[in-house]
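Tutorial handout. Part one gives the primary structure; part two gives the three-dimensional structure as tokens.
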Amino acid sequence: MDRFTALFERPPGVVADAPGRVNLIGEHTDYNGGLVLPIAIPQRTVAALAPRADGRVRAASANVDGGRQVAEYALGAERRTGGWLDYVQGVTRALRADGAPLRGFDLHVSSEVPIGSGLSSSAALEVALLRALRQAFALRLDDVALALVGQRAETDFVGARVGVMDQMAASLADERSALLLDTRSLEYRRIPLPAAVELLVLDSGVAHRHASGPYNTRRAECEEAARRLDVPSLCALTPADLPRLAALPAPLDRRVRHVVAETARVADAAAALTAGDFGRLGGLLRASHVSLRDDYEVSTPELDLLVELAGAEPDVWGARLTGGGFGGSVLILARAGSAKAIGPRIAAAYQARTSRKATLLVPPIS
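Part two.
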């Protein structure tokens, strides 16, 4: 790690990494205690770290000002700044709250996970850093506990009230298996991605931020709906409970309808993926997008257009927005071997109609 050595005048003692993720299906269900089905992407975040003898943290990111700017803070004096360093501070604050034997450290971060594309760049950073800290300071954290620390860093310190899916995916998922995760019990199993299919991720060019108002507003709406329906979380409901929505005002009724239906779609999608029924799986992806657009209201015209263009491709089974919405990316389920032809074709049509550039992120262009 030449950049680390140049900045801190010594080599790193530990280097760790973690992947971004794309969610196959199960959007806005994780903070409601429901099912999700993410899969890791090839792009990763790398954390190079060396312990210090004092309580100071010095950190730099190759993705900010070329990595030439070193930020510094003292353990125990974490303060939000509104920038990338908040994720580091959130992690150290959460670990210290748990009594972890933490000292200061020097840190250099570099990431291939695009920021603002809905692919969990923040979770990849948190998990890569936590993996490095676990090794450097012999922290007693298994992979699930590590993910939970990352989630607390983001919710309690950064201020983005995310569910646990992103950190669990960064900690446990791989590129050839979807991770079927019950976010209430934290039980999970891996479902291999069949060789006959290929996943595409197209970035719309409209960035999103989890810590911004609309995402947190959706979570607050779900909590209010759960309170009114007297359930601990919305995923305690089943499709048989949908008639109860008549007692809710708009838009709470629509939010609940999405969460309940989406959790059922995840279970159906896992069964379809296991059976190799890609037509059924594609239909579930399309239904998920319609629900996110109409009931949860987190889509944008750009995301809708990318889904529409993907649906016109004969080798595509289905497409949907992925991530929290309000910008970001779409996921496309396609026939194996077709992605590198389909992706540029959709991007060209998208640019002709919007003047925006869509970027094919998965599979990466070599």
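Part three, for discussion. The radius of gyration is 20 Å. The chain has a mean pLDDT of 95.
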